[in-house]
Design a protein that fits this description.
172 residues, two-stranded antiparallel ribbon, alpha+beta, Cytochrome p450
């Protein structure tokens, strides 16, 4: 949020308008805070937790993909990282940038909604995904509600922009 103050201000304004500042958002507010949901979708897209190859799947029947024959029993990996990544300009306009507004349209294509694949899919979908989504939603709404997020200043009064470093894995 400190790197994207416009996003923070818009989220804070939405929470102030719907929930007020004397209460914390609850899960009952989830449908009333659409911009927060857009932020979460953008977080999933921007840095998915299943890096590089996703989870393995075995084909139960013969398949073909772009004229490639894939035999039954083959182990395949969905490249979730690529689909969500900043490189996938086919699905996301301004794929390099952070832009929660890309998810404001209620008719977002199923393929471009990262919630449809960041927790896996098919029989291997994460059984705790709903709990995880609710926990993430509560964490973000509470942080935005409680804290004033802004850059720090050095002794000379200049802004300090934090460095961002990502490491692959389920934890950071």
């Amino acid at each position: 949020m400190v790197l994207h103050p416009r996003v923070y201000v818009k989220a804070r304004d939405e929470i102030e308008r719907i929930v007020g500042m004397s209460n914390l958002p609850t899960l009952e507010h989830k449908d009333s805070l659409p911009y927060i949901n857009c932020i979460i979708q953008e977080l999933y897209r921007y840095d998915t937790n299943i890096h590089l190859i996703g989870l393995p799947h075995h084909l139960q029947s013969v398949d073909e993909y772009r004229n490639f024959h894939i035999p039954r029993g083959s182990m395949i990996f969905a490249n979730i990282w690529y689909v969500c990544s900043r490189q996938c300009v086919q699905l996301y306009y301004n794929a390099v940038g952070t832009d929660p507004e890309r998810f404001e349209d209620a008719n977002v294509d199923v393929l471009s909604d990262p919630r449809n694949y960041v927790f896996g899919f098919g029989r291997r979908i994460c059984p705790g995904r709903h709990f995880a989504e609710d926990a993430i939603w509560l964490a973000i709404t509470h942080i935005v509600s409680i804290f004033d997020i802004e850059k720090a200043y050095n002794a000379d009064g200049g802004e300090i922009t934090p460095a961002v470093h990502f490491r692959p894995g389920l934890t950071r």
